[in-house]
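Tutorial handout. Part one gives the primary structure; part two gives the three-dimensional structure as tokens.
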Amino acid sequence: MCQKAFGGYFAPLVEAFDVEWTRGERTVFHSSDSNWRGFCHACGTPLTYEFEGHLEIAIGTLDEPDIVQPEVQVNPRYRRDCFERLSALPEKPAEQQDADNAWNATVRSNQHPDHDT
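Part two.
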């Protein structure tokens, strides 16, 4: 389900309690007979996974995602083979990383900027 909902191979989520939305409410899609997926109605960003009274929030959507560290892998039988060796893959050469960073600095994002909250 994560591949369809997040457009990726996995969805890093953290269980959340007493959540207060600071910018309106999320839009919710009943993605199966027992689960719901919350997303931003303006840009489509996946925000939540919900089931049986539980709420999980996508870690990457947090203003400070590094304060939440993954603690467990869920559904490892669905893990793609390529992720077994992901950390062993080489990184782009420094000059290509510099070029990527320079290009990224020229892009104006229309999605929620973290710095204004």
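Part three, for discussion. The mean pLDDT is 85. The chain has one domain: 2-106.
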